[in-house]
């Protein structure tokens, strides 16, 4: 057997398994905290507006932390310690809720935890990319996303099972166990490959030095992302639609059950789409995934209070999101030169973060005035992004270092 065939056969190595298990454990911990956080804020007398402020600040700062971390990691000889620190900070931030006596204590813990989450994300993606081969990027990222999503199912379930017995404050302390386990898994199981640090890379020069096709790819990701509204809006719309028939409490419970179904399909979709991305051109798989967003949008146009149509909306939303989040990363791994992977993954995460914020705000407002206009916008954005991705041809990830350094140096000198 050739060495290449052996690598493909053994794609599930210690590093990939360690990252997958770390994603699972970390998501269990912070989803436990996220599920219980609204109840904690209610006991502290905080309003829904303050919850929105906390979530908005945390998500916004996390996006920029991803960009800064990606850039900084390219300057380091060893990236893994930054990932370990990120998982540790996330665990500590979530557990700090146990000591909150004012709403701003929750704000500090959430923002701190999400800064750690942002700092680790591009580093984790680089470590994952370097632990496998281009032929198995899809399966590697698919496994990581599937494990992360499995944690999003287990975490809320544990909260529901334990909060009555332990109380809120003890529950938050308990989140330290899976959170610290994630940091240990990265530290003990991940084997980092040596890479040449790039201390000369600066932010804007580095962004200008990224491959041209990757920039076009980011444009497609950003445009499609404008149609990717938050799942909380979907839950809200379902609850509002069913409340006259089921009552508010019954409608909310039904919506949460549908959301659990969404997470199950998302988990399956992550791994399945990763396998498809290893067999077929990644840009085609991703373009099809973007196009699938049309199905839940059409279902919502005609849903009324139909359980069946909302099931279609939740189900296909889980399927297309599994494709998006898996294949976006796998495609980026193909397109980015090794010396700038940290920055590239950081830029990708920032584009997604900005798109998530803008899409949820815009579509939420449009829905109030015209659900038809909101869903037409989703359809147009998704198909436009799919079209751009379909015609983007990834450059070789094995670009010679001399060419990369020349381009980055030239960009830096022009500043």
Can you walk through the features of this model?
- The protein is mainly α and about 425 residues long.
- It folds into two domains: about 10-190, MFS general substrate transporter like domains (Growth Hormone, Chain: A, Up-down Bundle); about 205-415, Growth Hormone, Chain: A (Up-down Bundle).
- The chain has 18 helices and no strands.
- The chain has helices spanning about 5-10, 15-45, 50-75, 80-95, 105-130, 135-165, 170-175, 175-190, 205-210, 210-225, 230-245, 250-280, 280-290, 295-300, 305-335, 340-370, 370-390, 400-415.
- Helix 2 (about 15-45) runs antiparallel to helix 8 (about 175-190).
- The termini are far apart.
- Mean pLDDT is about 85; it is low at about 1-10 and about 395-415.
